[in-house]
Amino acid sequence: MSEQKIELYDGPAGGWGALKSVARTLNEQGVPVKGAKTLLHANQTDGFDCPGCAWPDRDHRSTFEFCENGAKAVAAEATARRATPEVIGAKTLAEWAGASDYELEATGRLTEPLVYDPETDRYQRTTWDAAFALIGRALQALPDPNQAIFYTSGRTSNEAAFLYQLFVREYGTNNFPDCSNMCHEPSGSGLRPTIGVGKGTVTLADFEQADCILVFGQNPGTNHPRMLGELRAARKRGAKIISFNPLRERGLERFADPQNAMEMATLGDSPISSHYFQLKVGGDFALLMGMCKRVVERGLLDHDFIREHTHGVDAFLASVQAQPWAPLELASGLTRAQIEQAADLYASSERVIACWGMGITQHRHSVATIQMIVNLLLLRGNLGRPGAGACPVRGHSNVQGDRTMGIYEKPPAAFLDRLGQVFGFEPPRAHGVDTVGAIEAMLAGRGKVFIAMGGNFAAATPDTAATWRALRQCELTVHITTKFNRSHVVHGRQALVLPVLGRTEIDVQATGPQGVTVEDSMSMVHLSHGMNAPASPHLLSEPMVVARMATAALPQSRTPWLQLAGDYAAIRDKIEAVLPDFAGFNGKLKRPGGFRLRNTASERVWVTASGKAEFSAHALPTDLATERVAERHRDQRVFTLTTLRSHDQYNTTIYGHDDRYRGVYGHRRVVFINAQDLKDLGLAAGEWVDITSLYCAEGGADVQQRRAERFLLVAYDIPRGCLASYYPETNPLVPLESFSVTARTPTSKSIPVVLTPHAGSAAADAA
Ligand SMILES: Nc1nc2c(c(=O)[nH]1)N[C@H]1C(S)=C(S)[C@@H](COP(=O)(O)OP(=O)(O)OC[C@H]3O[C@@H](n4cnc5c(=O)[nH]c(N)nc54)[C@H](O)[C@@H]3O)O[C@H]1N2
Ligand SMILES: Nc1nc2c(c(=O)[nH]1)N[C@H]1C(S)=C(S)[C@@H](COP(=O)(O)OP(=O)(O)OC[C@H]3O[C@@H](n4cnc5c(=O)[nH]c(N)nc54)[C@H](O)[C@@H]3O)O[C@H]1N2
Ligand SMILES: [Mo]
Predict the structure, then answer these.
(1) pTM of the model
(2) Residue 363 CA, ligand 1 centroid: distance in Å
(3) In the chain, how many domains are there?
């Protein structure tokens, strides 16, 4: 771990710091040579899709695009460390429970299937045959298939995801919680009814033509570093880049491109944002409503577009005109003048893209907020024409593709009809559980077998204590995974950990080496070929694990499981048979860079109830969780806590303890707070506090308390009344009962909390 310190970072994002950080990661993972070679194949036509994030690549065959955090993600998979049965079996699970997430991950790549032995409280080596037999027995023993729950994380390839959903539906349930439920679910829920597709409408070509890019609640410098390249190019061209973020994020301010020899040699860098609006946490709805109001008041509407292409404008105009300014200022934390300035910048631009991330989606009213973004775009016809559109920036590299493949607890009837016809069975129609629903079902004893295709359910979900109780009540937990993590330590009565090939590895099946496909954030589908030797000879591919689970659990199935898992092109033929958008799938993949799925909204074809793009009239939300809690706790200062990613992590995978751009070194248990708020509390930076989250339901009286201890106070440029801290350390504070309206995404970006001085010893920040 590096030296512990809190120090203002005033360099640009990227630059030499990025190169140093990559070098250190490669070194720590013990892969200096192979790692570097691996990196050169990321996002090449003949290489693998970077497992880092879902941002697309420039034509997918151009020069290697350097990305610090993509490099870390690749290095983490290419690590020389091995979590053999001996390494994992050396400790009891009670002992592993005391290890940090960082230490669990640092054991390296899992090499053989493991089964839990209750006698010794250890994982021990098992065979694949025994593992699949156990899964088959457990699934067959359930009286109702809905007692089994099948989680998916968003790295899973299209081929694996398609087989997985087929297996689970043949088994008889739609219980498909996935990471998307905690991520961009509200984007799909908000976009589908308004523009007819639950995905973004733009491509990289649009970024080249936009003259204004709005960035809401996103930290691309850390989470989508390749996006900075697009933003920088746009800015150099003179486009406006307008950021809306409660925190001053380095990557949104300045960026030095490590691939640009000139910038590196001269320590030069480029400004990113032309304008930065530091709104309050959760203030986006009010800001957007104010922006719409201003555009309407100035009469700067695209009347032709609205007449020809939209529905519901009158009700929407009436709602914004009736809305007074004062509550918008209060809720957004911005002045009317600031909101008007943002609106004028927008309205003076011809081609506008709106991007958003988790700062928008993980709130109670996120669906309405996303529909307000759509309203803003519709007012000036900024949808379905070059240089303009909606851009929800997805997280996991194939989270969008997994949904396309049917990893969805509420599948459309047409999809189930086709699936049933192609495979000759009657798919279950009842909706399944989502992530919150899965935790509830396990707690209530309705969920008994939990199988996860990747991810880290125990650490990523809300209310850690409740989630752990839920998992521990299961009869069987199964994790299909590359590395050891918290979810394997928090296990059911019986437990399996099944190690699989990662995307960077060569995958040889009966018909030879296989490639898989993924769909990025801009609906581009392309092939990905691993090029590293597998981490262990015992690893199976994800499709093969699915096929063997299916063979064990569904002896009557007519699907040729092993044949499909032996030839991924045959899986793709089946995908094509079920999903019309994939017509000619295998053929189209031969084109370098792959192909784009049809996006009707980008053609101004509106597959909605009215056949037009829908304006959505929403009232400014008033009954907010923080305010309800503050009402009941007048004696305490109630803050709104937002939980976010540091620069040294991939979701629950902790690479290191630095957050370079925010000036944090050697710590993760920190809480960012406004200096004036610190003073008012009578506390000082460098002191330790405990965080208590308080939640009371709408109209409800009961206040539920949750607690997380020992966080270091860091004075930061953040609006008063707002706090920020890292995920997953703060997940014990996220209320299970609080999720976004309709999308049910946990509200991990707006948690009402109070701070109290830490009572116990404030000793070392546990690694
Ligand atoms: N290196 C790396 N890359 C990743 C990931 C990773 O962990 N590490 N995770 C991947 C995944 S799954 C995802 S979903 C994406 C996540 O990428 P982001 O969406 O960038 O995720 P967060 O770090 O949660 O940051 C959200 C940003 O929103 C701001 N914010 C917080 N609350 C609010 C608010 O109320 N309003 C507004 N306007 N802003 C707010 C925060 O200050 C922060 O800048 O990244 C993906 N890429
Ligand atoms: N408080 C709070 N909670 C959050 C968020 C937040 O911002 N704040 N963000 C939410 C978001 S956006 C998301 S997407 C979720 C993420 O939730 P998950 O997707 O469940 O979590 P990850 O940490 O991405 O999962 C990492 C694990 O995936 C496994 N893995 C990695 N690569 C592979 C592979 O190729 N195959 C297989 N089978 N396994 C692999 C490894 O075991 C690794 O430990 O967390 C959510 N939780
Ligand atoms: Mo995500």
Answers:
(1) 0.95
(2) 13
(3) 3
